[in-house]
């Protein structure tokens, strides 16, 4: 798998840069405007989490493919990785309205709803990796 | 980066045409409240036609701007929210309750006029 882009997030500009990279790649892959907005927003939430809770980390964007009945489906995979403090209670952060910062608490559950696949891998004192994938032309998936 | 705030009679008009980073959003919040205070404005239209992404932080800042302006006695209408942005906000579970919205700048101004001038 060749990496399409990797943005270092260590300040607010990193959040903007990650968003722009996501917007560009999702447009290139051929996502419609609604999915472009979903992907860009998800990246923004993940990048802000890195900046808020881990201070620094990276957002990696990969072009992924999978076979289907209709042929090859393209997708975008967002990998948000940091060496921060880790998430104490993953179940808790996935509850709508839960927040430890000044946000709306829509962050991670919101990202999960915006994307098709979502996994969190976190270890206390080691760091957190969140992987979220959006497939082009997947219809009728459960949000 | 500063977002320009235009004065039109007793109203203030803002069109956000840049990629909103957190600092710019917070600076805008402060600038707008100062301007409302200075000009004694009764109504504000914030046009979001050019904004193609609103995440939870930006949504919170916008909601706060509306609440803060209301506290000062100025009504705020958000206009021009794109379909993709509206869909994403609802997907995220962000409702912006109690915030007045209109389809475009023209309708936003009309609704302010109706409310403030009767």
Automatic annotation (TrEMBL), chain A:
Cited InterPro entries: HATPase_C_sf (IPR036890), HATPase_dom (IPR003594)
Record has Membrane as a keyword: no
Cross-referenced SUPFAM superfamilies: ATPase domain of HSP90 chaperone/DNA topoisomerase II/histidine kinase
Keywords annotated in UniProt: ATP-binding, Nucleotide-binding
Keyword set includes ATP-binding: yes
GO molecular function: ATP binding
Spans traversing the lipid bilayer: none
Domain annotation Histidine kinase/HSP90-like ATPase: ranges: 34-138
One matching Pfam family: HATPase_c
Protein name: ATP-binding protein
Naturally occurring in which organism (per UniProt): Shouchella clausii (Alkalihalobacillus clausii)
């Amino acid at each position: 798998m060749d990496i399409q882009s990797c943005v270092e997030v260590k300040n607010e500009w990193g959040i903007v840069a990650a968003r722009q990279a996501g917007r560009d790649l999702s447009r290139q892959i051929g996502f419609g405007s609604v999915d472009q907005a979903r992907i860009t927003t998800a990246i923004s939430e993940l990048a802000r989490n890195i900046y808020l809770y881990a201070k620094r980390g990276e957002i990696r964007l990969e072009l992924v493919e999978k076979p289907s009945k209709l042929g090859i489906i393209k997708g975008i995979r967002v990998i948000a990785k940091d060496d921060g403090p880790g998430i104490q209670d993953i179940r808790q952060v996935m509850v709508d309205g839960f927040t430890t910062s000044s946000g709306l608490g829509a962050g991670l559950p919101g990202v999960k709803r915006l994307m098709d696949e979502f996994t969190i891998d976190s270890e206390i004192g080691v760091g957190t990796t969140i992987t979220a994938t959006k497939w082009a032309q997947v219809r009728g998936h459960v949000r | 980066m500063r977002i320009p705030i235009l004065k039109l009679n007793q109203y203030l008009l803002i069109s956000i045409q840049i990629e909103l980073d957190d600092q710019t959003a917070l600076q805008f919040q402060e600038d707008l409240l100062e301007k409302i205070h200075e000009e004694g404005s009764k109504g504000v239209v914030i046009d979001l036609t050019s904004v193609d992404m609103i995440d939870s932080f930006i949504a919170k800042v916008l909601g706060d701007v509306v609440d803060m302006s209301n506290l000062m006695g100025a009504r705020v209408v958000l206009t021009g929210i794109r379909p993709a942005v509206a869909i994403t906000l609802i997907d995220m579970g962000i409702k912006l309750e109690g915030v007045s919205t209109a389809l475009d700048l023209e309708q936003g101004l009309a609704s302010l006029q109706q409310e403030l001038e009767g």
